[in-house]
Design brief:
The complex is a heterodimer. Chain A is built from nine helices and seven strands. By secondary structure, chain A is α+β, with helices and mostly antiparallel strands. Among the domains of chain B are: 270-402, Succinate dehydrogenase/fumarate reductase flavoprotein, catalytic domain (Flavocytochrome C3, Chain A, domain 1); 476-597, Fumarate reductase/succinate dehydrogenase flavoprotein-like, C-terminal domain (Methane Monooxygenase Hydroxylase, Chain G, domain 1, Up-down Bundle), CATH 1.20.58.100. Chain B has a five-stranded parallel β-sheet with strand order 5-2-1-9-17. In chain B, strands 11-15-14-12-13 form a five-stranded antiparallel β-sheet. Chain B has a four-stranded antiparallel β-sheet with strand order 16-10-18-19. In chain B, a hairpin with a 2-residue loop joins β6 (191-199) and β7 (202-210). The longest helix of chain B is centred in the last third of the chain and has 25 residues, at 554-578. Chain B is α+β, with helices and mostly antiparallel strands. Helices cover 37% and strands 14% of the residues of chain B. Chain B is globular, with a radius of gyration of 24 Å. The chains are: A alpha+beta, B alpha+beta. At the A-B interface, α1, α2 and α3 of A face α3, α5, α6, α11 and α12 of B.
């Protein structure tokens, strides 16, 4: 069932720290099973580097089942590699062929500075959520869960957007380094739901403006949707833009200033 | 017995205990809450929900995670669902029934009062999470949908596609993020807790290592909550995320917190079998698949025909055969062991003959491909990504894998460990699940502890400290603990051996899996108890860390965690050896019926074993907390 790929060349980005000069390092993988995941191939390479007394390549990863959003990597210039709707940790070597040369880089985005090698700092995402990516519902005061019926299509659409894993592929794929897909997915999830209505416009304003503090501007290239491992649609960006515009006339803070 | 294992169960009839407790507990008034600082380590369901609620109440909170963001915690990977006694389906569910199912599922090895409280607050959890915007699955009428799960005869599981853990964690994370944004909670990310500091027997704070810079820092507080997850990665191969570890709990144990029932580990029946030796982790396929999939193996170990050509009479649907009333929905431990028996008998399937089939062909005939696809598409796609096979065309191959650990730090009814001021929540503690956890109950327990238990039970401890000075991080105990941690990590750098931490982790995992996995016996456990210290000695002399200790170094992070797994792994085996009975996830092959069912010994083993640190990891001290059942009668679990 399994076959062996041979002679794969890896060009891996190495960088010691945020302010250091980076460089590509070339490594050869003489043999690898096509059952191996892409990250397991890097594990094997790291084990070899270790035996040679060299420092392991640093990369972010954790659950290895495509849900925690920790893994990243630009693989041959594509965020999360060539397989659509798949995070790097679920990419398997059967997607590649013997003799391939594979270029591995960290996420490319000004808002995500490199920490070391292939690891970047994605904390601006947390700042966006802290600004408004929530429904204010302090513990204890919630009414019965079935009190508000939510039409299934609304609930399903909220879920489609809530599936975002916060990996940052959308930003890395965007020529402008914009975070519109990430921000709008969270915004659309919450703004579609009845529970999210009281803070809808305040949320839109706070999240969009915090996003603008860190990230580039969206010009509707659509690369984000292509790269998203959860295949979240850029329709969310339209919802966000509409809500943001409305927020400027509707929200209470803005009204009180008039 | 040298430590106090008073569970502090409130007075009164079982169903009134929790409300009596709330009514009579000491409170901290709102103006005084800001005088208290609480540290929460871990930002999974239990940690994030606790930290957010403490922040809302007005306490000063410091939350720690070793991830880059609180949203990465491993709670996120839970697929199936969360139980609650809502009885929205009108199928006969009640708080008492959820309580009873949990006790029975745990094979009568959990504390009645804790489990009843869990069942009581389960209904509040669903209300709370819906209010936060968690998009649970709904019916066309707009009301919440439920599904059934192993070990229950009612539909009480709420779910959000196959991503329930993700949606619940994001809900709790968003509440936490709100508190961080408001300045009520301070978040410390990429920080690993490496020790607990105790002063005069009370927990005074923690020592952390900054994973970015290698710096050690001291953090004082009035109370510390550990919500640091389970220790399933002791097996090396498990469904846990790569970074899951026991360090926080183990370091607390070394400072005086008793470790309870470490041998209670859960093996999940439906994971993708190992494909090769280099494999780094196993992937779980939600148990909900067993609602429609049929599990079978060929009768003939040498079967070589393609699956589709194996006629019905040559297939053994062994779960349906052995357990006719529960069939493919038999509880996790029961179905896991049945799969192991089939594979051990040579009837395994797949290239390595290390799995059993989970077949959807009948479900597709009965329901149509569209319905089956709608229910399980994300799982089918995940399976295909990993194995390259389409479950619509060939049956899935599954095999059990380590998934959850019921054991953990001993806590009383207030979730306080044997160190005053040190609390423990979620998978990291031992309470509620007994010897076996039912499906969809882990999310329930994590959120119950964090949202609805700790915010009440931490107050009496804090109220006693009001306006009394507590030692801060300049105290010499902090300096000593920091120096010890510093020396420990420096020591790892200096060993300069020849092997990777992963090598030792893999070897250790093999020993624990072989002798303290699904099937245990005296001879094997004694063998493990002699092999682990030998391998540990080799580890201490021959492990090597490349890179340096003053910048990010993932190898150094790993070596510290493997060190603690060694000591815990030995304790797991010792605990398993001491418990001479079979119960739940702990199956001793000496104690089984003729047809391979577990035989409990309620006269001698209806207790919690809480191990105390003696200073020597090979000689822990055994303590016991008897389990007294007022409402439930012992009975033999039967799912036939």
């Amino acid at each position: 069932m399994s076959t062996t790929l041979t002679n794969i060349i890896l060009k891996v980005w190495r960088q010691n720290g945020p302010d250091e000069q980076g460089r590509f390092e070339t490594h050869q993988i003489p043999e690898i099973s096509d059952e191996a995941s892409f990250l397991e191939m890097l594990d094997i390479l790291n084990e070899r580097l270790f035996l040679e007394g060299k420092e392991a390549i640093v990369f972010d990863h954790d659950c290895r089942e495509g849900i925690c959003g920790t893994c990243s990597l630009m693989i041959d210039g594509q965020a999360h590699g060539p397989q659509k709707g798949t995070a790097t940790c679920q990419l398997h070597m059967r997607t590649f062929s013997s003799g391939d040369e594979i270029v591995i880089e960290p996420w490319r985005a000004t808002a995500f500075p490199i920490i070391k090698d292939l690891m970047v700092d994605r904390s601006p995402f947390d700042r966006i959520v802290e600004a408004g990516g929530f429904i204010t519902a302090p513990t204890g005061g919630a009414p019965d869960a079935n009190l508000i019926p939510i039409p299934k299509p609304v609930s399903d659409s909220a879920m489609d957007n809530a599936a975002c894993i916060g990996c940052g592929a959308c930003v890395a794929a965007c020529p402008n380094g914009a975070a519109s897909l990430f921000t709008s997915a969270k915004l659309t999830h919450l703004n579609l739901l009845p529970q999210g209505q009281s803070e809808r416009y305040k949320r839109a304003e706070a999240m969009v403006e915090t996003m603008d503090d860190y990230f580039g501007s969206c010009t509707n290239h659509g690369e984000c949707e292509e790269a998203c491992p959860k295949e979240i649609s850029i329709d969310a960006i339209a919802v966000m833009n509409a809500d943001y515009r409305k927020s400027k006339v509707k929200n209470r803070k803005a009204l009180s200033r008039r | 017995m040298t430590i106090d294992l008073d569970p502090k169960i409130p007075e009164g009839p079982l169903a009134d205990k929790w409300s009596n407790y709330i009514a009579s507990q000491k409170l901290v008034n709102p103006a005084n809450k800001r005088k208290f600082k609480i540290i929460v380590v871990g930002t999974g369901l239990a940690g994030a929900s606790a930290a957010a609620t403490f922040g809302e109440l007005g306490y000063q909170v410091d939350a720690f995670t070793f991830h880059d963001s609180p949203r990465r915690a491993h709670s996120i990977a839970a697929q199936g669902g969360i139980n609650a006694a809502k009885n929205y389906q009108g199928d006969g569910d009640s708080i008492h029934r959820l309580f009873y199912d949990t006790i029975k599922g745990g094979d009568f090895r959990a504390r009645e009062a804790n489990v009843h409280r869990l069942a009581e607050v389960s209904v509040n959890i669903i209300d709370q999470m819906v209010a936060q915007g968690v998009p649970f699955a709904r019916e066309y009428g707009g009301l919440l949908d439920n599904r059934s799960f192993g070990g229950a005869q009612v539909s009480r599981t709420f779910y959000a596609r196959g991503q329930t853990g993700q949606q619940l964690l994001l809900g709790a994370y968003q509440q936490l993020a709100r508190q961080i944004g408001l300045g009520n909670v301070k978040l410390w990310n990429r920080m690993e807790m490496v020790d607990v500091v105790t002063i005069d027997g009370r927990c005074a704070g923690i020592i952390c290592r900054d994973l970015m810079t290698g710096e050690f820092t001291r953090h004082d507080a009035h109370a510390v909550v550990l919500a640091t997850g389970g220790y399933g990665n002791a097996f090396f191969l498990s469904t846990n995320a790569m970074a899951c570890n026991v360090t926080a709990a183990w370091r607390a144990h070394r400072r005086g917190a008793a470790f309870a029932n470490p041998c209670y580990t859960q093996i999940h029946p439906t994971c993708i079998p190992q494909a090769d030796d280099f494999q780094s982790k196993l992937t779980l396929m939600s148990e909900s698949l067993r609602n429609d999939g049929r599990i079978w193996v060929p009768n003939d170990p040498d079967e070589s025909r393609p699956v589709a050509q194996i006629p019905e009479e040559d297939r053994d649907y062994y779960l349906e055969r052995i357990y006719p009333s529960f069939g493919n929905l038999a509880p996790r431990d029961v179905s896991s062991r049945a799969a192991k028996r089939m594979v051990d008998a040579g009837q395994g399937v797949g290239p390595l003959k290390n799995g059993v089939y989970l077949d959807f062909a009948d479900a597709i005939d009965r329901l149509g491909l569209d319905t089956v696809w709608e229910r399980y598409s994300n799982l089918f796609e995940m399976y295909e990504r990993i194995t390259g096979e389409d479950p619509r065309e060939v049956p899935m191959r599954i095999y059990p894998a380590s998934h959850y650990t019921m054991g953990g730090l001993w806590v009383d009814y207030e979730l306080q460990t044997t160190i005053p001021g040190l609390f423990c929540a979620g998978e990291a503690n031992f309470s509620d699940h007994g010897a076996n956890r039912l499906g969809a109950s882990a999310l329930m327990q994590g959120l119950s502890d964090g949202y609805f238990v700790l915010p009440y039970t931490i107050a009496p401890y804090l109220s006693d400290l009001l306006n009394k000075p507590v030692p801060d991080s300049s105290h010499e105990a902090f300096a000593e603990a920091e120096q010890e941690a510093r020396d420990r990590f420096k020591g790892y750098m200096e060993i300069g051996g020849t092997r990777t931490p992963d090598y030792f982790h893999r070897e250790l995992g093999k020993i624990i899996w072989d002798y303290c996995g699904m099937d245990r016996n005296r001879v094997g456990l004694e063998k493990a108890i002699s092999e682990i210290p030998a391998l540990y000695e080799e580890f201490q002399n021959d492990v090597r860390v490349t890179g340096d200790d003053t910048s990010l170094n993932q190898t150094l992070e790993k070596v510290g965690r493997v060190d603690d797994f060694f000591q815990l792994g030995l304790l797991m085996c010792q605990d398993a050896l001491t418990r001479e009975e079979s119960c739940g996830g702990h199956f001793r092959s000496e104690y089984q019926t003729e047809d391979g069912e577990a035989v409990r010994n309620d006269d001698e083993y209806a207790h919690v074993t809480a191990w105390e640190w003696s200073g020597d990891f090979t000689a822990p001290i055994e303590n016991r907390e008897p389990l007294e059942y007022e409402v439930v009668q012992f009975q033999t679990r039967s799912y036939k």
